[in-house]
Write a structure and sequence with these properties.
By secondary structure, chain A is of the alpha/beta class. Chain A has 21 helices and 23 strands. Chain B has one domain: Rossmann fold (3-Layer(aba) Sandwich), CATH 3.40.50.970. In chain B, helix 7 links the parallel strand 7 and strand 8. Classes of the chains: A alpha/beta, B alpha/beta. Strand 17 of chain A pairs parallel with strand 2 of chain B.
Chain lengths: 617, 364
Amino acid sequence: MAPEKLVKPIVNDLSIHVATVNGSGSQTANSVLLRAIFQMGIPVSGKNLFPSNIAGLPTWFTIRVSRDGYVARRRENDILVVMNPETAADDVAAIGPGGVIVLNEQIPAPPVPDDRVVYRVPMTKLMEPITTDVKLRRLVVNMIYVGVLAQLLGIAEDEIEKALDAQLGKKPRALELNHKAVRAGWEFASSSLPKRDPYHLERMTATTGKILIDGNSAAALGALFGGVEVVTWYPITPSSSLVETLIGYLDRYRRDAAGRATYAVVQAEDEIAAIGMVLGAGWAGARAMTSTSGPGISLMAEFAGYGYYAEIPGVIWDIQRIGPSTGLPTRTSQADLRFAHELSHGDTGHPVLLPSSVRDCYEFGMRAFDLAERLQTPVFVLSDLDLGMNMWMSDPFPYPEQPWDRGKVLGDDELARLKSFERYRDVDGDGIPYRTVPGLVHDPRGAYFTRGSGHDEAARYTESPEVYARNMDRLAKKLRTARSLVPPPVVEDDPAAEVGLIAFGSTHWAIIEARDQLRARGIATGYLLLKALPFTDHLERFVRRYRRIYVVEQNRDGQMAERVRIELPAEAARVRSVRHYTGMPIDARFVSDAILSQERDARPAAAPHPVTEGASR
Amino acid sequence: MSAAVPAGAPASGAGGKNRAGLTRADYDGSKTTLCPGCGHNAITAGIIQAAYESALDPARVAKLSGIGCSSKTPAYFLGHSHGFNAVHGRMPSIATGVRVANRELLLIGVSGDGDTASIGLGQFCHLVRRNVPVVYIVENNGVYGLTKGQFSATADIGSTTKAGRKNELMPIDLCAMAIELGCGFVARSFSGDQKQLRPLLKAAFAHRGTAVLDVISPCVTFADHEGSTKSYAAVKEHDAPLHDIDFVPYFEDIHVDYEPGTTREVDLPDGSRIVLKKLAADYDATSRDVAIQTLAEARREGRLVTGLLYVETDLPAFEDELRMTDTPLAQLTLDQVRPPRAVLDEIMEQLRTGKGLAAAAGGG
């Protein structure tokens, strides 16, 4: 087939899927590709779909390029790089007609239908002149496909150089080797692989000034500029990188004149100890946080309730993943919502922040402290593996213009002006009492005894039924006060729409794209992006404005939909649920297909009918 | 100790006031709700007296506990200090958090044998391992009192419940464990021996690091019968003190000339001294090997050795290991903890260009 008979060029709209083996050094190669495309000004995102393994198991990296700026995962990929013999057959089978396959020639190729474009590359042979070191060959071979793809797609060579230099600039020998491998791939493609596919990259200006960052690093930056003082943690995927990045920043930027730390990081013996240390530090007046994932949240339950009842500030990040024990620890999820919000025995309710972007991770990294200290309670921040560990574009983060909010803390001066101090007295009518900090007050009236739920306004032990109920009511009032303090949702109304979408967290990016897909099919939508629990009054206004509401989320049970129905019982019948729970990040087509299918059944203005549940895969 | 009133304050004198200007009553707490005759009440009294004699500043003390009869007691002493009655077995993590937030606080932790040797054994071990400065008092009676007399993990083999059931499991010796874990201050005492307990408490207040005091404290309700190895009668019969103990605080410039060879002295970082007076045999409290061996022999022979089992005063405390600034973290101001705008600009530039970034986060 002559090249001019090709379908028309597809520019800046493609997904590259690299199938390789964990621990084989592909991460550098994929980062270089991602950065080079980013430097060309083209919107790009990268998702690492990795196994729970250090070396040897299959792993995939997907780079999505989208001139329209879509960054959610796409279900289908256009270009496949086959580096792993074990998964080659399945990987190739997943590529549709017109797709492109870059095949490491040493891998026995499964049968490929004629309407796919295959580029065979003798990668091992190309590596031979570059180094004699077998181990290095295995690591650097990934750079061959970088060179091949760059040449085929039209990634400017100097951008590859720049990206490579940024990654390896401090290791001249590695830089040189990798550079040679890229060059070998490039030259091979240019001499031996005539272009037979329609995919092209062309420079844009859509990423000018932007940064590339993962959500965990953004959260770490938020904590750094939020003035974190005590960080406790127990290693767990996918949360560890948050604290490890934070340790790096603290080490560099948080030292006194004598070079000593203005912070403490404690690797705890388990997550029970991690939250215990946070509460101890919060009680004693420090800004304290911990970061974990679902299993850690489970262990923290008793202390979370204690923090709620004893009214101690603390910040707990939950980078959500799937399952207890070995249940897919490297797959993403939004299924801790219900559990985290009510974590503990007894009646509880914790403020939960729901970052949907790396910018939110940064902002909430700071704001969670203010909220925890203002409300004197543990605050949870629910990120997830997709947001936390993958690379996202963002405008640069702004420097915080506001001072920190330490909440209602009394010092000796304030105590001297008061007739009496009672730790749990609701003086202001907002449910939030005043507190003192041990060691920071010398007035003996400032001392109090902290315990769980059985105390009166003056923090004295009591088992009085009236006093207990009164305290419970005040705590409920405090959570109502939280509604006016948590970050409000982002609302995009469409007066012409009958359908309103509600989502939170990383689901947001699939919603943006799904709304465009739905619009193209004649369905206009309004959109409410939730940023926190408890709900603000935006929710009710939004739900009342639309005939049908779809709550889209990444868990099996529709946990947010359930909360919306509980919040607005009169509207419950109009609240439908779309749920994605495979462990893969949600994609836009899944959302639009599910809504289209439910809309087909929808009978406008009909009497309330049973809520139909969204399709699931 | 940092929590004591600085030198130069008036010495104890008129009206029963100590050098902090406080009376003994100023160190009282609320009335005890434990059973009459409970060993814990005697320990509470010992803490009050020791705090008074050491002239602790109540505003710089924090009291911590877990759950159990013993853990109720911080309400009964030092009513002018902040207190934190935590969840079961987790006082060590609270203590660690409090200490890193404010390195100037003297932490007095009270726990029991159930709270420490069972549900809280992990946290106890890690507290000791980190050498977090806490005076960690275990009020050890071998039973769960609040839940009515079940064996705890420190119950001796052969000891019986009130109903006559025998414990056949190996007891956990918290002192031996603490020594193994590198603790720099390990003592065992008896609630009925105030003469020994009080100087131990005062020395523990002055120690910089975790100080473990395992105080045998008979439960009058569930473990004071014949057959219990932690009854008043059994403890009195088997108590074998290693030495007589005097504590000389840094602010008392007292020099007593002891007969050569009859005492051993231990200097504490704040200038206080522990004087150990030889009893039957000489005991070297600075030897870990001697301590371990002594405990093992005593167990074989059914003796309860009490006294300062092991002391090592110059171990780095947790805040040294963390290389923390001198100012308590809780007192830092915003400009000390929020890096300037230029730092954010620098990081944003790294994230824009990919240059100078820390290593990418790994998977797995």
